[in-house]
Amino acid sequence: MAPPPKRGTFKFDKYHLVMIALRESAAAITEHAPPPCPREWLEAVHDPTYVEEVLTQTVPPGKERRIGFPVTAHIASRVRHTSGGTWLAAQLAMQHGYAANSAAGSHHALYNTGAGYCVFNDLAVTANRLIAQGDARRVLIVDCDVHQGDGTASLTAGREDIFTLSFHAEKNFPVRKARSSRDIGLSDGTDDDGYMEALAKNLPCIIRDFAPDILLYQAGVDPHIDDKLGRLALTDRGLAARDRFVIGQARSLGLPIASALGGGYGHDQREVADRHARSMLAMADENAEWPKATA
Prior knowledge:
This protein is α/β, with parallel strands linked by helices. 43% of the residues lie in helices and 11% in strands. It has 10 helices and 6 strands; from the N terminus they run αααααβαβαββαβαβα. Helix 5 packs across helix 6 (122-132), helix 8 runs parallel beside helix 9 and helix 9 (236-252) runs parallel beside helix 10. The radius of gyration is 17 Å and the shape is globular. The chain starts with 12 loop residues before the first helix and ends in a 9-residue tail after the last helix.
């Protein structure tokens, strides 16, 4: 785990706490350590100059401010591994039905800069590589973070083989939204019922019409009513219903689904980590008909 940066507001300790919560759950999970994402995979999506800046820790101060923390050697190594983790989760999902990356979901990272605590966009990198390598013809990215997946939308704009679906709080960050394949901007205070109504209205028909080969799921828990950066009002039960619905839709059509952690913010990092862990365990439980879930 990368050490906390000396400046910035992002809390890196939640990732370690997520793994503690998963291990303490006694659930039947298998842990994998991902390899670093190859540089050429990153450069296929991001500006090679920006990739060089990250890998050599020469990111300009303006870009670091936009990211939200300094890009140190520890961070550079971390983001290559977390991007590799989403790729590995996709590969494992194709074997087991579902797999989770206990980090990443870095949906704000853009072509030539990071933003919003995101350095490289693991979702776009993984989707691009799955198609380039012939593992999938079409990839659906479902983003249920409370913030719009503007980076993912921008990096995949115009592609007919990648569909981006974003459910987010309309008045939350980023102020200037990108255009996803479909955007569902929710009103402040949307509760469990309102959220599930929007999800049920949109996701099944998109899966049917787009006919993806795999679903990448940004499973942020920041729509929770107690999240300090969210504007929605989902309860623990609502988050579980959301996650079970997403994976249930994929599984009903035999689609593999790989999730990434996404956002979740609060003063009590263990509380946030527990939400993330419960999210992954709910999806693994929904996938129980497959031989074994993996995380």
